[in-house]
Amino acid sequence: MSAQEERGALTPPTALYDHALRLLRASPDGVPPQRGYSPPRKAAAGDDPLSHEEAKSAVHAALSPLPDDSDTLRRRFERLGIQDRHRHLIRSAVAALPLPAEQVDAARTLGRRLVRTGTTTSTVTAGIALLGRLGGPEDVPYLRVLGLFRALTGPAVGALDVLDRRSAAVLWLAVHARRDGLQSLVHTLWTGDRQAVRPELVALPTTPQFVGSAVARRIAEAARLSDLLDHRPSDTGLLAQAGRLLVRMGCSRDDPSDLLAYRDAVRVYDGVVGRAGLLPPTLDNAAMLLSLALDLSSGTGVLLDWPPERRAVLLELIGRLLAEPRWAVAGATGGTADQRPRTDWIRRTGRRPFERRSATSDRFRVEVVAGDPADREPVEARVLIDGCPVVPAMFGRGPAHSPECLLDDGRLRAGAEPREVQLAEAHCTEGCCGALYVTIRRDADQVVWENWRQTMPGSRDTVPYPPAHRFDASAYDAEITRAETDRAWSWRTRTVARLIRAGLIEKPDLLSRWDASRSWIGSGFADPDTAVVTFWYLPGLESGSPERADSPLQFRWVVADDGTPPEEQAAAALRRLAEEDPKSYAQVCGGSRERAEELGFTWPDSA
Questions:
Q1: Is this structure's pTM higher than 0.85?
Q2: Which residues have C-beta within 8 Å of that of residue 171, sequence separation ≥ 6?
Q3: Which residue of 66, 231, 321, 530 has the lowest C-beta tally within 10 Å?
């Protein structure tokens, strides 16, 4: 061994906490960079020889009994083949570790040693998990610094969520808030400049493209939003921003579970709605209050831990306020053409969350909810059972399916034969984060919803299934009929798209004569004042001998609103499909460039 090698072997490795603290002190103003720090490099571990079950058993063996110091645990981990990549198993094992009262002090002491002196991600993860169970305020500064290593952010935030929710939120934002426009607020929160928090918070853009549900929740926690509202009861700028953050947290297109995880949600709802009369009656504020009302009536807000009747009181307050002439005018007038979809939405939707329902409909109800078009919110067919919104209560990884999917196609109709229905799909895809299913069947004078299941690819967790629900068949059928025929939520181009889709379902030959088949049809996402018809093209489809069936091309036809009644626009579109090959006026939007060029079509630059 050379002298240099000998010195390296004798020099103990630096504790991860010391390394993170040194990096933080070297950062400008002592504020960490976006995305935090990478952990110190170490020699590649190679392929993991342990299966999931083997690694799980090895982690349990390494922790039984708990060692007295970090070096002992590190050697156990090395001997048993436990690597940094097993940190999720380590967290789970420590969380489930039996700790008799006589072992608690020793386990807490070990956790602190691992956090302050541990030299590997795996041992420090074990320490963080122990402090998440047993730690106290004195551990918060260590966890906050260690969490700046990206590999330790999750464990540290999890522990801090128990010990100090504000510190957890500040750390989460420091690592995960990647928009440049958020950095000034993050800087203020990290340095603890309380006087600057309010102006930074009020100036923050809160569009969905800028602030998602998780960012909104963490901002509210880090800024102590509920305390700010209490200390500034007449601050209308802060009041409106608090309302917008609540809207973002409950957004079904994102992750509405963030609203449920926000412990002060009910308190902030109370503050915003209770003082909403102080707000200036603007279009933005009217849209914010209506979005809150939709959430309180049939969205994730229903699931919060409300005092008796308090949610109904807040809904009534919003309803009375928006019915006042000054607010009605604000919601009906927009200064620019870009604001017209929003004013139209308020006109269509403004009274829907405040409509009284019969007692029989409370048992089973379907509410079609169109969200704020300025935020590009989805249109959902929300199912409520005993007043509880099913999708956020049982799934929460994406919105309920659209009314076109669940109602227009008759999927919620109950027949003698059981039928499995997908109620919601993850906002990414089912293949990524799953979907929610239920089986619907008719049983004499009852309709039964049973055999609930969630799909979650790759998950080893067991999902508890809800019990079967039984409904009076006549009341169920009446509610489905009411929901199917309710079109008051729709707008012109959405209706045009629905009628075109219905026409193509009735007469599929309108497309098949052109070797085409129906794909997605709906109102435009980027421009809701258009109807969009997409279809697949496969040469030879009409003859029954398609060429290269695995390589179809997808086309997109945008139908602009010409101001005529939707029925006339849809009829004109169907006539054009019957008379002209749609490939001559639609644009390629899917498939492959090679296949498009082979068939003589131009591949779009944006595809």
A1: yes
A2: 143, 144, 147, 148, 153, 156, 157, 160
A3: 231
